[in-house]
């Protein structure tokens, strides 16, 4: 590796796809994503989990963009694929993390994440200045995952996350208050440093949305959308599908479109069992930016029935298009949405009832649309980047003490 000079490393559990040439690809972490850090550092080393790019079929590679480049080097933690690897390959994982840290001047660690916990531990050991980005509630994620292992791991991962955030010299919270109450820190803390930032939309976005909502009548097809990788149990696809079934039984003419990579066979089977195959469509991946906004602009409602979320990138993007959003009562969604538009994790009856009441109330749709559009303005790029700059300056200053 080249001699380090103001190099920052980035640690997280997310999965990037590595091709045979050694390039890494991602939907949410394209090369330009790293600009937010490269404004303060000369180089970034990205260390996450990785899988084979070529192993994905074409449908599940749509929207992926190259993540590495001249100033972004990817050194994946190859020995960590799942929790079991912590027992079987613990020393190898730690050595990989330490190698990255030893070639860094600073570290940015996104949590909750298993890689993040280990990176915090090693950074403290070898005295590398680091900052933590707090993006979700670990206990919610593991506890609501849906199996015994998740419930056993929930207090362990939550406790370790809480311990290292408390020890972190600099912390960025995506929320105004919620994450701070779950994971307080003795370090220098910064609020509203969201991991999503929006360009200011065109002037006609909200007027077009109002016009679309006003045109809905009893015979209209209600198009509902959601985004979430199909191989992730965290996104709650089954909850959405079962809620759709209840809406159809109540006479609502509706359809659910699901965007996300992965094998849809299990969900297709569920749709068949519920006899709603014609009412659920799996679109594969859609590129972020203009393409995803074009799709969203066709929707009437957006749902996010996740078992855990940060703010929910897609939720904020949907809100910025004036879309009415219904989501589970978790994470940063508690700040983003009214309680009347949130439901208990996995409760498809409550989810369906909320959707039905909104669909049948024209005034409520219009009010929520405008409310969501206005709320999304706090995520405009110039506001978020100003908050992030304060966090990064705090990290740089921590290395001088």
Write the layout of secondary structure elements.
Layout: E1 7-18, E2 24-26, H1 35-38, E3 43-52, E4 65-66, E5 72-74, H2 84-88, H3 90-102, E6 106-111, H4 114-126, E7 130-134, H5 138-143, H6 148-167, E8 170-173, H7 178-182, E9 188-190, H8 205-214, E10 222-227, H9 237-249, E11 254-259, H10 265-273, E12 280-284, H11 290-296, E13 301-304, H12 313-320, E14 324-328, H13 333-336, E15 342-343, H14 348-359, H15 362-375, H16 381-398
Parallel strand pairs: 1-3, 1-6, 3-5, 6-7, 7-8, 8-9, 10-11, 10-13, 11-12, 13-14, 14-15
Antiparallel strand pairs: 1-2, 2-4
Helix pairs in contact: 3-4, 4-6, 8-15, 9-14
The CATH architecture designation of the largest domain is 3-Layer(aba) Sandwich
So what's the CATH class of the largest domain? Alpha Beta
Spatial shape: globular
Task: Please tell me how large the radius of gyration is.
Answer: 21 Å
CATH topology of the largest domain: Rossmann fold
Helical segment count? 16
Output the structural class.
alpha/beta
* Biggest sheet character: 9 strands, mixed
Quantity of strands, as a count: 15
How many domains make up the 3D coordinates? 2
Give the uncertain stretches in residue-range form: none
**Head-to-tail CA distance between termini:** 27 Å
State mean pLDDT (0 to 100 scale): 93
Percentage beta strand: 15-25%
The CATH homologous superfamily name of the largest domain equals Glycogen Phosphorylase B
Q: Which percent range fits the helix content?
A: 40-55%
